[in-house]
Structures are given as C-alpha cells and as structure tokens.
Design a protein that fits this description.
7 helices, mainly alpha
Length: 154
C-alpha cells in the first residue's frame, strides 16, 4: 500500500533544507520563480508535472519521493540502492504502452488541429501517456478499499 508520508510542499522544503539551499537558489536552479516555490512549500499550489520532474532530477530522487510517498511493499530496493516499482507493475505498464504504440502506428491520419503528427510528436505523446499510466496506477492504489485489495496491494 502506498502511504502519503508528508505533503508535496513539506517534502520540497525538507529536500531544499537538506541540501542547504535558500528558496531563491533552488528556484533559480530549476527555472521557476521564488514566489512559485514558496507557494509549493506552503501547499498553496501544487507544482505541475514538469516542475516535479525538475525537482526530482535536481535532488536525484524519484518523483514519488517528491510526492511524499513512503516505501511500502509497492517498492523493492534494487542492488544499486534505488527504489523500483515491482516487476509485475512494470510489465503491466509495458504491455499497455505496447498496445498504445500499436494503436498509434496503426491509425490512419492521426493529426492534431488538422496537421498530421510528426514522429517527434508521436514520441512525445507516447512519453506523456506513459507518465499518465504511472501516475494513475499509483494514485488508484491509494483509494482501493481494503476489502477489495489483493494481498499484493496491502
């Protein structure tokens, strides 16, 4: 089961302080305003996914760490010390992505606002969909009532 250990704002603040950075320094390094960072840390606003990714990359942590999720049996520690989603979940996501890519390449005349999608646009769309699959899978786990969870989900 995934447990929210602390808010996103609290997690960002903790990571920033751990790295001995001011809000101004961190904001400058990841390309956002100090005011925006302040709003995030005070939980007045939630960062968009691009900012979450920038923060995770900057602090060299997973996006789950930014979201404040604890380690539970959803994650296993790999030999290099990083946390990985269980293999079954990775296979499920890979299968969904394979189906999505097949649908994307098999469709005729796929376009956006009347213009055909370039290969670069298709790849970008695929990456965004994979991110959505991962987010949705993680968020849905929080809301499955205990009586409907598998032993694996608990």
């Amino acid at each position: 089961m995934v447990v929210l250990e602390m808010s996103i704002g609290k997690q960002i603040s903790e990571l920033r302080k751990k790295h001995k950075l001011t809000q101004q320094e961190l904001a400058k390094r990841i390309g956002i305003s100090r005011a925006a960072l302040s709003h995030y840390e005070k939980d007045r606003r939630e960062p968009d996914s691009d900012t979450i990714i920038k923060l995770a990359s900057f602090f060299d942590v997973s996006t789950d760490a930014i979201y404040g999720f604890t380690q539970s049996n959803e994650y296993i520690k790999s030999t290099d010390g990083t946390m990985r989603v269980r293999e079954k979940e990775e296979r499920d996501i890979a299968k969904r992505m394979e189906e999505f890519r097949k649908d994307l390449t098999d469709s005729d005349g796929l376009s956006f606002m009347g213009e055909p999608l370039s290969e670069e646009a298709k790849e970008s769309l695929t990456e965004a969909i994979e991110h959505i699959f991962r987010q949705t899978q993680r968020l849905n786990k929080k809301y499955i009532p205990k009586k409907h969870r598998n032993d694996e989900d608990q």
